[in-house]
Amino acid sequence: MANTQGRDFLFCHLCGTMLTAPSPKYAQCPLCKTKRDINDVKDKEISYTISAEDIRRELGIVVMEEQKVQLSKVDKKCEKCGHGEAKFYTRQMRSADEGQTTFYTCTRCGHQFQEN
Ligand SMILES: [Zn+2]
Ligand SMILES: [Zn+2]
């Protein structure tokens, strides 16, 4: 599971844009042009990801892999900075016993916390 976890290296550390790999030697941010040496990232993963992406684009397939995240704002006190507004979404856990978990992200400091 967790196919979107642990892939921060695919995103620009400055602006968060998804990096492209115009050359096998480096990855580049299309927005701010920051380059990252491919050795800085796990090349096997990035090449796999890029090729999968290319294939999809080639075939015109739009794959909705993203979590279905519905962000809404709610009056919720941030447990870290005390700010009174957070964005939240809920996710149903696999086990029925666990019910629904609500995830909050503070709109001020970005702190993430959750609540069952
Ligand atoms: Zn960037
Ligand atoms: Zn906060």
TrEMBL record:
<feature type="zinc finger region" description="C4-type">
    <location>
        <begin position="12"/>
        <end position="32"/>
    </location>
</feature>
<dbReference type="GO" id="GO:0006363">
    <property type="term" value="P:termination of RNA polymerase I transcription"/>
</dbReference>
<feature type="binding site">
    <location>
        <position position="32"/>
    </location>
    <ligand>
        <name>Zn(2+) 1</name>
    </ligand>
</feature>
<dbReference type="GO" id="GO:0003676">
    <property type="term" value="F:nucleic acid binding"/>
</dbReference>
<keyword id="KW-0479">Metal-binding</keyword>
<dbReference type="Pfam" id="PF01096">
    <property type="entry name" value="Zn_ribbon_TFIIS"/>
</dbReference>
<dbReference type="InterPro" id="IPR012164">
    <property type="entry name" value="Rpa12/Rpb9/Rpc10/TFS"/>
</dbReference>
<keyword id="KW-0863">Zinc-finger</keyword>
<protein>
    <recommendedName>
        <fullName>DNA-directed RNA polymerase subunit</fullName>
    </recommendedName>
</protein>
<keyword id="KW-0539">Nucleus</keyword>
<comment type="function">
    <text>DNA-dependent RNA polymerase catalyzes the transcription of DNA into RNA using the four ribonucleoside triphosphates as substrates.</text>
</comment>
<keyword id="KW-0240">DNA-directed RNA polymerase</keyword>
<dbReference type="InterPro" id="IPR001222">
    <property type="entry name" value="Znf_TFIIS"/>
</dbReference>
<keyword id="KW-0862">Zinc</keyword>
<feature type="binding site">
    <location>
        <position position="106"/>
    </location>
    <ligand>
        <name>Zn(2+) 2</name>
    </ligand>
</feature>
<feature type="binding site">
    <location>
        <position position="109"/>
    </location>
    <ligand>
        <name>Zn(2+) 2</name>
    </ligand>
</feature>
<feature type="binding site">
    <location>
        <position position="81"/>
    </location>
    <ligand>
        <name>Zn(2+) 2</name>
    </ligand>
</feature>
<feature type="binding site">
    <location>
        <position position="15"/>
    </location>
    <ligand>
        <name>Zn(2+) 1</name>
    </ligand>
</feature>
<comment type="similarity">
    <text>Belongs to the archaeal rpoM/eukaryotic RPA12/RPB9/RPC11 RNA polymerase family.</text>
</comment>
<dbReference type="GO" id="GO:0003899">
    <property type="term" value="F:DNA-directed RNA polymerase activity"/>
</dbReference>
<feature type="binding site">
    <location>
        <position position="12"/>
    </location>
    <ligand>
        <name>Zn(2+) 1</name>
    </ligand>
</feature>
<feature type="domain" description="TFIIS-type">
    <location>
        <begin position="74"/>
        <end position="114"/>
    </location>
</feature>
<feature type="binding site">
    <location>
        <position position="29"/>
    </location>
    <ligand>
        <name>Zn(2+) 1</name>
    </ligand>
</feature>
<feature type="binding site">
    <location>
        <position position="78"/>
    </location>
    <ligand>
        <name>Zn(2+) 2</name>
    </ligand>
</feature>
<dbReference type="GO" id="GO:0005736">
    <property type="term" value="C:RNA polymerase I complex"/>
</dbReference>
<dbReference type="GO" id="GO:0008270">
    <property type="term" value="F:zinc ion binding"/>
</dbReference>
<keyword id="KW-0804">Transcription</keyword>
<dbReference type="InterPro" id="IPR034004">
    <property type="entry name" value="Zn_ribbon_RPA12_C"/>
</dbReference>
